Amino acid sequence: MRAEELRNSRITILERISDACRRCGRAPEDVTLVAVSKFFPASDIEALYAAGHRDFGENYVQEWQQKADALPSDIRWHFIGSLQSNKAKHLVGRVDLIHGVDRFSLATTLDRRSAAPQAVLLQVNTGNDEAKGGVEPEHVMELFEACAPLEHLRVRGLMTIPPFDATQGELRRYFSQMRKMFEELRRNDSSVDVLSMGMTSDFEWAIEEGATHVRVGTAIFGRRAT
Prior knowledge:
The chain is of the alpha/beta class. It is built from 9 helices and 8 strands.
């Protein structure tokens, strides 16, 4: 019963992604759905894996380690939580994409710990929200250029988590601002290809503003226990 519920929820989200892409003239295959599985058991991930899903997001290093050790090796893991430098060693080489690099000291730690190029995104604090991590928009290019010489770090793009109380108009502005920064980075480096923004409540607007990756948890797995 639970497996069928999860599969149906995933199908619904994929249909909504397709509809959003159709509205803005994009191809649905250009948008990656990251199923955010934090606080849910490995069995839920297995159910979606059996349905063909491969991209999963986790927020906590220890929880991710336990799941990664128990689940198929071809899962594409996205680490989307706040990352402490002393835990970076556990992620490098094992996750496909680290979404939340917000300072140069973390970037250098990841670079030092990596034996091969590690893909990351720079986290941008679009709403100047004190409760959120992220580099200020005006310093994005500065951080991007500082990371460029690092041998084992590949900055693939940007991510953001807008303030939870933002209105639709504010969200649209934040997402549009992110798209402009993303396009500026692409003009400087053609290998930049990821714009991660949009969650359960706003991923369709994010897609219409250019998101390549959306991070959806509640609409797939249900509400999390606190």
